[in-house]
């Protein structure tokens, strides 16, 4: 990764890059002012359900830098497995502007490939094998869905009368000294519960905001992935999509909450 070349204006270069992006993709012009929305790829569970991995990637708003972030989690303990997360952002101005053409697809593909190489050893060590069923998916484009509630059958072989799995999310104002210092006072935390087999479990209840979230403004239940290993307890991963304060408007990123059913 390199710094900006001496004598060049970051503001001018950013404006030119954003302009070329909008000219190349005119239908996205109106969406660009709302920040950027990361795409998510589920890398799945290990066969035994001990580990889960996913990636989020895209083009950063404002700078136009392509990025890839790969997270590997210890499922039972719901925490990152070091050296995860792998956070990569291409800030090489010469490479991005090669030939005077801004090709976001090519740039994102390249940074994702490089980041996958960095994460490969850990993905192999944790035996991530693409296991899991997306039991429920609530994309933002599905306008009639409830962003705060999801009810699913946790597995394919589901019969009437069996236990459903229900997720409920409540968000609330929660201040952050860091965010308040830059005049952002409407940051939020969230409480997530799971109802399954007659029990209500609290999966998350924020009392403070982790620095890794930046300045979060809103949340939604985006999807749940389940896995029923042959020799081990069933497991889940819930992806929460959050709006965070960005350069051009709210950016949308993901966080995962994992555990055993």
Task: Explain how this protein is built.
This protein has 261 residues and is of the alpha+beta class. The protein has one domain (10-260). It is 19% helix and 39% strand. The chain is built from 5 helices and 14 strands. The strands form 3 sheets. Strands 1, 2, 3, 4, 5 and 6 form a 6-stranded antiparallel sheet that branches. It has a 4-stranded antiparallel sheet with strand order 7-12-13-14, with no helix packed on it. Strands 8-9-10-11 form a 4-stranded antiparallel sheet, with no helix packed on it. The longest helix has 22 residues, at 104-125. Mean pLDDT is 86; it is low at 1-32.
- Averaging pLDDT over every residue, what do you get? 86
Q: What would you call the quaternary organization?
A: single chain
Cα-to-Cα separation, first versus last residue: 42 Å
> Can you tell me the number of structural domains?
1
Q: Mind describing the biggest β-sheet?
A: 6 strands, antiparallel
Which residues form runs of ≥5 with pLDDT under 50?
1-32
Count of DSSP helices? 5
Strand-residue fraction?
A: 35-45%
Helicity level, as a percent range?
10-25%
How many strands? Answer: 14
From the spread of the alpha carbons, the general shape counts as: globular
Structural class: alpha+beta
Please write the string of helix (H) and strand (E) elements.
HHEEEEEHHEEEEHEEEEE
